[in-house]
Design brief:
InterPro entries: Immunoprotect_excell_Ig-like. With about 230 residues, the protein is of the alpha+beta class. It has two domains: about 30-65; about 70-234, Immunoglobulin-like. The protein has helices at about 35-60, 90-95; strands at about 70-75, 95, 110, 115, 120-130, 145-155, 160, 165-170, 175, 190-195, 200-205, 215-220, 225-234. The longest helix is centred in the N-terminal third of the chain and has 25 residues, at about 35-60.
């Protein structure tokens, strides 16, 4: 004999939940997306770049403004009467600076002009003569033009004379004139020009006997505008 113990559930009866059952949770508010590492790195790099740019700009002059390079503002200043830096008689006869080449342009000056910069530095050429280098010179036995470069420092800062640049060209076609190193022509001095002082530097540039037009380019330092002297040497 068998008995059927199956009975329908009683009204209002809820069986206990089985293993692993979790009651439903209320919905959560959506979370904002997180910034990726790439975005953070890019933002940080931009801030660093901006700070560096501000530091560099401020270090130029101290007030955040870039300092302009010295330029030529006054030209054709004749030497004062009795000035011992003027050319001697033989040098005057050798250089004819009043007759520069017609195509020399407005940016060039005569061989006897004094060029003044807006930072109170002046450059002039004196005692332009012809010569021939000795057998011990570099280059040897070469015709050249010998002259003196005078730099007058009227500013309140010293000038590093070793930063001066000198270049020469000769002839109508503008061939480069090699610098001459001989007795008394030692190149750029390794010294400074103090405020209120001047310095005279002997120099020589190749100038063949058949050529008369000479172009001499001088800059007191790497940042200053180059002064271009032109004229004919007899």
């Amino acid at each position: 004999m068998s008995y059927d113990n199956t009975q329908p559930p009683m009204p209002g009866y809820n069986p206990p939940p089985g293993p692993g059952y979790y009651p439903p949770q209320p919905p959560q508010a959506p979370q904002p997306p997180k910034k990726t590492t790439t975005v953070l790195i890019a933002a940080g790099a931009a801030v660093v770049a901006a700070v560096l740019a501000a530091v560099v700009t401020a270090s130029v002059t101290g007030d955040g403004k870039a300092e302009a390079a010295p330029t030529v503002t006054v030209t054709k200043t004749a030497p004062a009467e009795g000035d011992d830096t003027g050319a001697d008689d033989s040098a005057t006869d050798a250089a004819d600076s009043d007759a520069p080449a017609e195509d020399s342009g407005d940016d060039s000056y005569g061989l006897d002009d004094t060029i003044a910069y807006d930072n109170d530095v002046e450059i002039s050429l004196t005692k332009i003569t012809r010569a021939v280098s000795s057998e011990y010179a570099s280059p040897e036995k070469t015709p050249y033009a010998k002259f003196t470069i005078k730099i007058v420092n009227k500013s309140d800062k010293k000038i590093d004379a070793s930063m001066m640049t000198v270049n020469c060209a000769y002839g109508d076609e503008g061939k480069e004139g090699e610098s001459i190193y001989d007795d008394g022509l030692d190149g750029l001095p390794d010294t400074s020009i103090l405020a209120g002082r001047s310095l005279s530097v002997p120099w020589g540039c190749e100038l063949p006997k058949g050529e008369s037009f000479l172009q001499i380019e001088v800059a007191p330092d790497y940042e200053s505008e180059t002064a271009i002297f032109t004229g004919k040497v007899k």
